[in-house]
Amino acid sequence: MLNLMTITKLPIANWMDHFVDWLTQFTGFFNGLTNFIGGIINAFQWVFDLIPIWLFIVIIAGVTYLANRDTKKWGLIIFEVLGLLLIWNLDFWRDMTQTLTLVLTSSLISLVIGVPLGIWMAKSDIVQAIFKPILDFMQTMPAFVYLIPAVAFFGIGMVPGVFASVIFAMPPTVRMTNLGIRQVPTELIEASDSYGSTEWQKLIKVQLPLAKSTLMAGVNQSMMLALSMVVIASMIGAMGLGTRVYFAVGRNDAGGGFAAGLAIVILAIIIDRLTQALNRQRKH
Amino acid sequence: MTIKLQVKNLTKIFGKRVPRAKELLKQGKSKAAILKETGATIGVDRANFEVESGEIFVIMGLSGSGKSTLVRMINRLIEPTEGSVLIDGEDLMQIDKKALREVRRKKMSMVFQNFGLFPNRTILENTAYGLEIQGIDKATREQKTNEALDLVGLNGYGDQYPTQLSGGMQQRVGLARALANDAEILLMDEAFSALDPLNRSDMQDQLLDLQETMHKTIIFISHDLNEALKIGDHIMIMKDGEIVQTGTPEDILTRPADEYVEKFIENVDRSKVYTAGNVMIRPTTVNIEKDGPRLALKRMRENEVSNAYVVNSKRELVGIIDARDVLELVRKESRDLQSIVNTEVPTTDEETPIADILDDISQTGIPFAVLNDKQQLRGIIIRGAVLGALAGNEVNHFA
Ligand SMILES: Nc1ncnc2c1ncn2[C@@H]1O[C@H](COP(=O)(O)OP(=O)(O)OP(=O)(O)O)[C@@H](O)[C@H]1O
Ligand SMILES: [Mg+2]
């Protein structure tokens, strides 16, 4: 039997290096992209810096109340208020808003790229067959690995953090958009077609509305994945709660690390429950 | 009658190796043999038929016989492998996407087995769907939608969602959506199959009522022969993608083309199908203005009956006479037939289904007289002939 160790090692690492090198030629393009993503980040951060902390807490509690009008989740609202007050008290407020900015920017970009891609996959079996393995790859490759090209293209800071998060967090949005559209019952598609809808009318009036709750579940997952990237992203200079955890690890500061970790958990629960509630709300 | 829809040589082969399957089909190979050899499924095999304007044309067949495929090729939800569909003489296969959309918007509407209602839209929005995608303004849309909902008896439900309605009501919405579009052709694929028997029967009646005033051309797919016989002007029976027989309900019942059709009609409730006109026999008659008791007696003896029906010279029914009374008259040397005529004769017309008069037939001793709209005597219904017809025997008209 052939011993695979005796043949020459395949230069996969080399090829990838060359590919990344080759990509870095397009500095103009990446600079433009950096500015664009940076713009979104700054906009979010500007808003969060502008809103007084008490107002922010009131807004979150109010939105939760409105989104759960029928079920009246007082427990959740109390949790949110206390949780946010704790973050404020621990002096993590700005870090929390930075993390939130990172998550929101990544999710927004995931949505803008992921939904059309998901629609495309739903419309064509060939496109689906091509992208399915790519998505699997994007999601299972250790997220760490994305840091390297991210730095190569975008340097250090929030932008490469967003880039790495988008690659890692986008697949659920794409997947669930595809799934949601494909799950629309054949009879409804036939109904739409038989009355003479254009492809666009069918998409807007039938497929997307009926795929919405599945699609939103994908967005929710993407946000959670983006949040799970914050510590990793902090290694390449994306500021926020992740940085606090990262530093704590470096200084062997268990207490500080735990406090920052707790803040991330609180943020995660708030984002998760809020997006779920908003999703439920839209269903009849 | 003008021809609204014409289907020529329409064929659908599903799967790969379609050209080879087509070739085998032309050689006369069976659906099963072609599936085995090429892996391709014959959905519909060279269908040819015509549908008249304003009729209900029912397509029947067992599961998998190609009914849905056929009806979906008519509006090209399924792209035919071969053949053509002509609507008012225009070949649908020759037109481009945009023109096809126009045809779907203006000429044909479809009603679905599981209703095909959009769960995220209200009843009003569902019904208006066809109009909405044509870009018709909201006011016109609402007016037409409300008219359509009125027609199916659902006004007042406009703001509800489909899941809030019963199955029967949901299918009324499906029908209203088709009617709102004002299309001339309705394609109904097992539209009533998901409903319980009572609701189904209601819907059939409602469809027939609507059809009285609207005269749509309806292609109706059904599993249920009783349904087909009740609503169909013509019935087409399919088997393994092929058309086995096309004809009026009576044709199908009285002259089944082969064993498959015979099997199909075996369990049918014939009392709903046969009308008084189908089972009536020739009566023994006496013309009261001409004939006397002796002639009456002679005729009754010849025909071995104990009653004769009395008519006037215009063949209008006067009543019935009994042989014993006539005998009495003869004995008394009287010619006054009028004195013994019993005018209490149960009557019906030729169109009445036997089911409607079956009870009365078995209760009254006197056979029903069948009259046409000028009150002329056309025939009579005797119990023996009725039971014979229900048992599936050929009715020997005017034997
Ligand atoms: N998309 C498809 N791909 C492959 N084969 C198909 C497809 N659609 C239908 N068929 C096959 O074509 C044949 C006819 O199917 P069709 O659905 O028209 O039957 P049907 O008479 O409507 O049956 P049912 O009463 O169950 O609705 C069947 O053998 C079916 O398996
Ligand atoms: Mg079918």
From TrEMBL, chain B:
What is catalyzed by this enzyme?
a quaternary ammonium(out) + ATP + H2O = a quaternary ammonium(in) + ADP + phosphate + H(+)
Q: Which residues form the ABC transporter domain?
A: 5-265
Any one GO molecular-function label of the UniProt entry = ATP binding
Q: Give the matching Pfam families.
A: ABC_tran (PF00005), CBS (PF00571)
Among InterPro entries, the record links this protein to:
AAA+_ATPase, ABC_osmolyte_uptake_ATP-bind, ABC_transporter-like_ATP-bd, ABC_transporter-like_CS, CBS_dom, CBS_dom_sf, Gly-betaine_transp_ATP-bd, P-loop_NTPase
Q: Which UniProt keywords apply?
A: Amino-acid transport, ATP-binding, CBS domain, Cell inner membrane, Cell membrane, Membrane, Nucleotide-binding, Transport
Quaternary structure (record): The complex is probably composed of two ATP-binding proteins, two transmembrane proteins and a solute-binding protein.
Topology versus the membrane = Peripheral membrane protein
Start and end of every CBS domain? 280-337
Q: What is its EC number?
A: 7.6.2.9
Which CDD domains does the entry link to?
ABC_Pro_Gly_Betaine
Q: Which family does it belong to?
A: Belongs to the ABC transporter superfamily.
Q: What is the name of this protein? A: Quaternary amine transport ATP-binding protein
Kindly give the PROSITE patterns that the UniProt entry links to this protein.
ABC_TRANSPORTER_1 (PS00211), ABC_TRANSPORTER_2 (PS50893), CBS (PS51371)
Q: What is its main location?
A: membrane
Supply the SMART domains for this chain. AAA, CBS
- Organism of derivation: Loigolactobacillus binensis
Compartment(s): Cell inner membrane
